[in-house]
Amino acid sequence: MKPVIALVGRPNVGKSTLFNRLTRSRDAIVADYAGLTRDRHYGDGRVGTYEFIVIDTGGFEPDSSEGIYHEMAKQTCQAVAEADAVIFVVDVRAGLSAQDHDIARYLRSTGKRVLLAANKAEGMKDGPQLAEFFELGIGEPIAVSSAHGQGVRSLIDMALEGLVPEEDEDEAEVDDADRPVRLAVCGRPNVGKSTLINTWLGEERLVAFDQAGTTRDAIHVPFERDGQRYELIDTAGLRRKGRVFESIEKFSVVKTLQAIADANVVLLLIDATEGVSDQDAHIAGYILDSGRAVVIAINKWDAVDEYQRQMLQRSIETRLSFLKFAPLLNISARRRQGLGPLWQAIEASWASARCKMPTPVLTRLLQEAVAFQQPKRAGSFRPKLRYAHQGGQNPPVIVIHGNAVEHVTDVYKRYLESRFREHFKLVGTPLRIELRASRNPFTEKDS
């Protein structure tokens, strides 16, 4: 599983800037204003060949007992509990503060692996300003600049040391056909994930109870159906580590994110009696970003009336519209209803994710699509799409070569995607289209 790194520190020290640097995005709002981030924010990070999950947190005040700062402190404590390593961010230019001492005292009590990142240290790598941060008792401060990227690579290399397992050469040589299909069952707490897996297995393999948070870790269960081996992953509705902050703990996003990243196919389970929540949409968005094949199953379908079914269908169309390609099935895990078609949809989605697309067929489909509808003209330029080939599987990637491809609109890319999907009958898998400009050999002259 991907290691998890939490960014912790007092307000306005540059945690969100570092988060955006690690995720290569602008997902976290950054401004010269203290206390902008309040909730935990999850993202995928990559430095070189290392992949990890990074958590951005709000300004941390461990001793706050009421108000919004108390809620922010609870969010940060949960992020620390979920993390494999913690990066404690301090502001070199502002200097050491009493709040930094309070945070350091809390982090030392958790027993987590903590690295001290001295941010905003442009040109101050060997400066005397770093010396005062040894008082925190965290270790040697590492001079970094989140805004300019200085020292960030070294910081992450140290944070991931010992957390990234080395790939086994023997395992790498195993053909994908000989490996079991990893099927992750994801959803909110008490949606029926464990009940569904128990029904598939025909035994009470997992504890299923009418209380949110019965499963506390990602459980891997081997399973075989019609000669095909599967590895069923029952994801945790709650976090695995840390103290219990509430009587019923909050849903831990990080365990679900790790399970999705390791899966081949993801079954998104939705409770018909509860409808589609923000958490369902968040998980669905991460599935799409991860490129995993996905099937949506509405569980407890027998427990709702006709009006509730219509409202549920409407909410799915609006909140999960970006997963229109995913099969949608209505099931009842407890009554064993709809499980046959569900397996057919899972198998079809996995087959689509590994679909092989010959280059001549792709090029012909591209030419037919352009002949039917050309790309929109951008000024005096009209993009010319010449040929296409497959660039990868799981998810399928189609690489299109041409001229002035930077002017191809997202609407036209969706049009091409629909043409490819229709021909290859792709269901349950994202399809990614990459546009590459053809190189002009006359633009580079020999000196």
From TrEMBL:
What organism does the UniProt record list as the source? Sphaerotilus sulfidivorans
Q: Where along the sequence do coiled-coil regions lie?
A: none
From its record, what is one biological process in GO terms? ribosome biogenesis
The family database entries (NCBIfam families) matched by this protein are listed as: GTPase_EngA, small_GTP
Swiss-Prot/TrEMBL keywords: GTP-binding, Nucleotide-binding, Repeat, Ribosome biogenesis
Amino acids binding GTP 1: 9-16, 56-60, 119-122
MF terms in GO: GTP binding; ribosome binding
Q: Where GTP 2 is bound, by residue? A: 187-194, 234-238, 299-302
Quaternary structure note: Associates with the 50S ribosomal subunit.
What this chain does, per the entry, is described as:
GTPase that plays an essential role in the late steps of ribosome biogenesis.
Per its record, how is this protein called by name? GTPase Der
Please report the stretch or stretches of sequence annotated as the EngA-type G domain: 3-167, 181-354
Which InterPro entries does the record associate with it? G_ENGA, GTP-bd, GTPase_Der, KH_dom-like, KH_dom-like_a/b, P-loop_NTPase, Small_GTP-bd
Family affiliation: Belongs to the TRAFAC class TrmE-Era-EngA-EngB-Septin-like GTPase superfamily. EngA (Der) GTPase family.
Please give the HAMAP family that the UniProt record associates with this protein.
Answer: GTPase_Der
